[in-house]
Write a structure and sequence with these properties.
Layout (H helix, E strand, L loop, with lengths): L1 H79 L7 H17 L6 H6 L15
């Protein structure tokens, strides 16, 4: 009977050790999965940030080009006025058009500076005004 008891005890100890090893392996597997998940999420956030920055860059470039086009148009319209016949109406329109160009221009309006000075993780939170 003592031999049978010792055998049962040894078997119980072995099962406990195997169970602990299994629990440890499961814990390590979960830790690896969580780490991989976190790294994947960080990569996704970095990619989203880069996409947002690129989109903002292209939006600003188009807005800048539109502002430059408006300025050139106002200058050409002023040059086309014959013999100094610039009217008060034209001057008023030109002031308005140039103010709109300044508003559109991300450099003149300061919108570009504000976005470029943000920390990278905040760039995705910026919504540039659309024209």
């Amino acid at each position: 009977m003592a031999v049978a008891g010792a055998h049962l005890h040894r078997r119980w100890v072995e099962e406990q050790a195997a169970s602990q090893k299994k629990q440890q392996r499961e814990k390590e597997r979960r830790a690896r999965e969580q780490k991989a998940e976190a790294e994947g999420g960080e990569r996704e956030r970095a990619a989203a940030t880069e996409t947002a920055k690129r989109d903002a860059l292209l939006t600003d470039a188009v807005a800048w080009r539109n502002a430059e086009t408006v300025r050139a148009f106002v200058a050409a319209a002023g040059s086309a006025m014959t013999g100094g016949a610039v009217t008060h109406g034209f001057e008023s329109w030109a002031r308005w058009a140039l103010a709109e160009a300044t508003r559109l221009d991300p450099i003149s309006s300061g919108r570009f500076t504000r976005v470029s000075e943000l920390p990278q993780d905040k760039c995705t939170q910026v919504v540039a005004p659309r024209s």
